[in-house]
Amino acid sequence: MHIVVPIKQVPETNAVKMDEKTGTMIREGVEAIVNPLDLYAIETAVRLREQYEGDVVAISMGPPKAEAALREAVAMGCDSAVLLSDKAFAGSDTWATSYVLAAAIRKLNNYDLVICGERATDGDTGQVGPGIASSLDLPVATYVGKIEKFSNGYCRVHRLIEQGHEILDVKLPAVLTVVKEIANPRLPTLRGKQKARKIDIPVWGVDSLKVETGRLGLNGSPTRVVKIFRPKLARQCQKHVADDDQAVVQAVDKLVAFLQQKQLI
Amino acid sequence: MDYKGVWILAEQSRGRVQRISHELLTRARQLAHNRGTDVAAMIFGHNIRQSDLQELIDRGADRVVAVEAPQLEKFLPEPYAACMLKIIADYKPEIIIAGATSTGRTLMPYVAVRANAGLTADCTVLDIEQETGNLLQTRPAIGGNILATIKTPSHRPQMATVRPRSTKPAAKQHGRTGEIVRLKAPAHCLESRIKHVGFIPNESEHSLQESDIVVSAGRGIGKAENLPLVQRLADELRAALGASRDVVDRGWLSYPHQVGLSGKTVSPKLYFACGISGAIQHLAGMQTSETIVAVNTDADAQIFSVADFGIVGDIFEILPVLCERLKQAGSRQ
To answer: Does the pLDDT at position A153 exceed 90?
Structure first.
């Protein structure tokens, strides 16, 4: 089984602090990590490789420092990695990102499955997985919570939707986007870390891929960010401090009266 | 560019039009008004009920195009994409909005790549830029820490998804008229490399998004063993049980309970936050609730900035007293 796992390096969003005056993100001291939801994709791919043999290639489009994310993927068990990095890729939206990742997967040529995380925690779009599938003209199953079996060139998966689990037979090659339910990501092993330190990670730019330059980066992106601002949070909260038994009873009384007045109880 | 009209992707299940379609009509009517154009709905399925299609007209569509075939009964990315691409080719919509549902979030990016269209996910605000007529799409990013306004200056259609329950369904107006077109899907639109082989419905019908009252637990509960405390309040209020991402990440409650940007968006009459600090990622999923009550030990917790009523105190002291009072109030009625 040959598997490609596209991953993304993201800022640790829980740690993001905003500059209240300028409304911009304070990037200093914010760690760059592998998109947490991509860890499930890596784990799924590595488990399939352990079961069916073959290989797992991690790819990532990003600046040169995104190499660190790929090394972590190798430490978790991916066999090799390719970094897609070029100034021409900068400013890509999900359309242009899907286009470049698809071009890289096409160049890798030999693959049965492309496994993606459900979304990245920074952009939060979930559009690149289906975008890659569309660009490669492959079938896609999103929100996959379980891979049941492989038979006759099909892969049977459980797709988590609002009302339950759909069971689908998906013809290979295919793109899957996976959710947390699928597996618990492993920690890198010592041997994995050693391999990750030494492994050579090729960098593919525009010249290495069959792409139309007009479709890359900001110029190739249909969408434009025109404004970034802080969400406004505004409600007049009546706050009651309940720091002893009596205050607790009083606060609860007021709350019950408030809920009754709003006809909520 | 001769693209025009605001289109929604209406969704059906077993031939019945789903609520999200009516919510999208609320958005579409507003946009069509600002753009000076009409609203149309596309829907893919099999044997869709005629009265439900008429209801789309009643709730604000001027035209409904239903593409039908037995193979379209359930969502499959390839045939649904082929049908949407056919609509784009035949009708040239200027704007297409869909629900950020498992269907919308899969179909829209698949189509956008083929149609060379711009797509923005999970928009909270949609508007028209008066000078240019472009669609302005505002959405949370970076874990909800920022809002970004995005537009698609030179590609058509402009595509966007919006979260379910982020608007009320458009009201019915009796006597509204419009055109209903039922088309048989052409055979070349029905090829699929994916087959449905089964379905397992959710065990407990998770009513989080339908519930009038949601009681949610945050990291302040300390450990999974303390959940019954919050569950008891939920029971007293006949509420659904929600959770912050922290609680789900720690495995104290399962993912379907998660409220927030990476979980569900809820908009109940009452949202009761227990031990939730109010990370923006959480607020993004509940701040449209009609009334918000928060209990937290930290007086500066961000949750209080979106709450209508707050108690600064320990949930372990407050919840038992509150449950007792609610019980008394309930038995008196």
So the answer is: yes
